[in-house]
Amino acid sequence: MPSAPGHRQPGSTVLTPSHHHPDPTASEGSPSPPLSSSPPRPSRIPVVVVPPSSSSLPPLSSSTLSSSPQSSPPAASRIPGLRRLCLRRRRGCELGRRVGEKLGFRRMGTAGKGAWVVPAPAYREVEGWEGAGDDAPGYRCGHSLTFIAPTKGHGPRLILFGGATAIEAGASSGLPGIRLAGVTNSVHSYDVEKRRWTRMHPAGDPPSPRAAHSAAAVGTMVVFQGGIGPAGHSTDDLYVLDLTNDKFKWHRVVVQGAGPGPRYGHCMDLVAQRYLVSVSGNDGKRVLSDAWALDTAQKPYKWQKLNPEGDRPSARMYATASARSDGMLLLCGGRDASGTPLSDAYGLLMHTNGQWEWTLAPGISPSARYQHAAVFVGARLHVTGGVLKGGRAIEGEGAIAVLDTAAGVWLDRNGIVTSRTLKSSNEHDASSDLLRRCRHAAASVGSQIYIYGGLRGDILLDDFLIAENAPFQSETDRVPRSENQNRNHNYSSHSPSFQQYTNNSHETASGFSTEKKSIDMLTEASAAEAEAVSAVWRAAKEASAASSEDSLSEGIGSESPLSETSPMADDLDDGGSLEPDVKLHSRAVVVAKEAVGDLGCLVRQLSLDQFENESRRMHPNNEQSYQSRRALNRQRSPQGLHKKVISLLLRPRNWNAPADRTFFLDSYEVGELCYAAEQIFMQEPTVLQLKAPVKVFGDLHGQFGDLMRLFDEYGYPSTAGDITYIDYLFLGDYVDRGQHSLETITLLLALKIEYPENIHLIRGNHEAADINALFGFRLECIERMGESDGIWAWTRFNQLFNYLPLAAMIEKKIICMHGGIGRSINSVEQIEKIERPITMDVGSIILMDLLWSDPTENDSVEGLRPNARGPGLVTFGPDRVTEFCKRNKLQLIIRAHECVMDGFERFAHGQLITLFSATNYCGTANNAGAILVVGRGLVIVPKLIHPLPPPINSPESSPERAMDATWMQELNIQRPPTPTRGRPHSASDRNSLAYI
């Protein structure tokens, strides 16, 4: 059990000069010991601003940091009463303004003052934690506390390392200092779920005892650098505490070339899940202002000294640097060379061209401070404790502060901070008294902030504190819980591997086109997309072959198809003696083809026997040969940003394509929308567990008009529609090819935010940057949002895609996925073990099969065959489907990924259904689109729509839209859609792409 909150150490002999390393920056009479006697508090994870491409947080929301919360936004704001930017312009440079805006520094109007912002939280002691003997860290200051996300064998943990365990009074000043002989290198692990501290004894050679070091989490590893100990300054070597497979082991990382050098009181954090960025500190001679970055995805490892543009922060030590999940690094506070505490904050951003830039954050912080702690929870930076000049501890409301980067304001316990004069409160705030400390450490776990230890005057602390991000969450921070959100998924797990986006994708076209020209166009697609998927395949193979022992990048590792201990198919009950629960209804619902007149909305039912297009997937004639071709983030508005999107786009009966192709959201709003949705996806399991009834949608590919038609004909997700009694499941491929990918993905994300437990999205192969950069989505973003904002938004969408779930189970009897089971997937558990965020290069064969594989041409072709989509890909026969279903006690596989003439198609004697929801794919296939409605009794009803010509007077056919009308055709010429299945018969196999 925890001991007393504070303990005064008995006096001890002052260290001899040879072991004493005075702090050259400490001012005389400073209660904060000279550096020698007091190791600098290990600054919390360094804050680095990530490249826009990797930003994942809400591009700070619509409101912004405001030095004057009373000012009202201009009428020209996109969202009335909300958006008005107040970013400080750097030397009048437009680039500085745009960088600040992307960091989210925006002014907040009075409308949001009371409605949207939540004051800083109250802290209390953690109750009932366990840790007997040396298992508990005990009295500690100058240590680090780092969060490690859940692994397969363990829940979320906090890793406490190093720090000083004793203090002594200064001989001359009578002020407390850190006794360097009491500095330790012990490691303690706190199990968040069990509330238990355990001292760990990792294998390998540990780093030397140290305090005032820096630490950052990289997947299931913690990286430590720098600090100061009994022997003086620690080296700048990187030490990695590897928790992979729940076995603690120390590694020393070999880094080539010059690095930051020995220092303490500096900051380090992992930015954009890729770059370790180290900022500021003291090298024993002077206070530093430099910044260094190490690319964890590039071997050999090298430190690169950054030369950022913009408003550079002054030299400082004992600051904090915290990386927001979107990649923004925020440097906060610190102490300059004269010992003066600082109150400013800077964001560090990397542009797409590799150039880094500092931007000063506007706003009024409650107090200048150093030796404090800071940690992000969502878009809110929680800052606690610290000292002022002379070592006087910050008291009152200033001890607890929050920089709400979404609302754009500093907050204390009373609300928005309008001046640096600390506000008084009529009631005594015990929480503020608890945070009257320095040299403590903080970490966030989900929405909770944990704080351990520190120094209060001459009292060393061993208490353990906790706070909730907010009594209630803002719209962008709140993540509603559902059946899919089990305990272990309440904590975000960031994969350290940063190869940001790889390929997933590939096309599918369905049905025979009536014109040979259309077939030719579809045939030509093979080469272009095979080129793309080949690159993905090569990357995946290289990743799986790379050694991971000394790698800082955490890969998912290839899972074996089945362990030897897995039950064999013969041992599993396939329910063969029972009546199957899943049945395909004998009739499908179809909307008539007529576009006008009284028959325009005619709905009829056809017997499945009338669907003669089984196996009529889009593929070239057998005699045709394949010609290889070179293929080329705000706080919510009064109604909520996602509600704005829904109100503008969810118009099933009367949606019309905009006459002006300009998209109605800007990049900041896109970032906010992505952030809010991403927080939900992060807490969902990789395989969703759903209950019937469910509507299942196949590929949409930016054909927003088809989505509206399906909603109009068969119900739409709204309280005025059918969302109260049926769920919606979308199987991926939301973007590319069609003209309205932006509308499609933004509406689906907005619906996910509005109905998190009823709208379900899984990932398709086009939800990958390397693919949607080639097949239309990137081009659409640039065309409709401008080059700079378009690229930023496109990058942000792709970051979100890495968090999407990968499959869904309905009533544990139907599995839904985008592609198929390929050669490697034999159990659902293999999919469940895939950790997100994930890119194709670290996903190995399992992820490739899941998103890219297809069934064979028909039920007569069994086993595994080469896939015309590209080398390394396969098609799987009906025998594989039967075996998979039997082994996993499933009755049906529903997948998308391929265009089929009737919108849906049966395979493997009805054990697999391919579903495609976009009509007339790529403007050439002339296929129908379909959805599947899975009823409570697991009876499945297909519902179809046929392709319709645009209304005569629609914007799509107006003269001024002539160029827009050819948008898809031009893309098809440059990137022809791959025939949904290039599966020639066995005699012609050598004509397939897999052999070219």
UniProtKB/TrEMBL annotation:
It is found in: Nucleus. Residues 475-486 have a biased composition (Basic and acidic residues). Binds 2 manganese ions per subunit. Residues 31-43 have a biased composition (Pro residues). It holds the Pfam family Metallophos. One of its GO terms (cellular component) is nucleus. Residues 1-83, 473-513, 544-580, 613-634, 973-996 are annotated as: Disordered. GO terms for molecular function: metal ion binding; protein serine/threonine phosphatase activity. SMART domains: PP2Ac. InterPro entries: Calcineurin-like_PHP, Kelch-typ_b-propeller, Metallo-depent_PP-like, MPP_BSL_C, Ser/Thr-sp_prot-phosphatase, Ser/Thr_prot_Pase_BSU1. It comes from the Eukaryota. The keyword Hydrolase applies. Its cofactor is Mn(2+). It is an enzyme of class 3 (hydrolase). Residues 762-767 form the Serine/threonine specific protein phosphatases domain. Its EC number is 3.1.3.16. Belongs to the PPP phosphatase family. BSU subfamily. This is Serine/threonine-protein phosphatase.
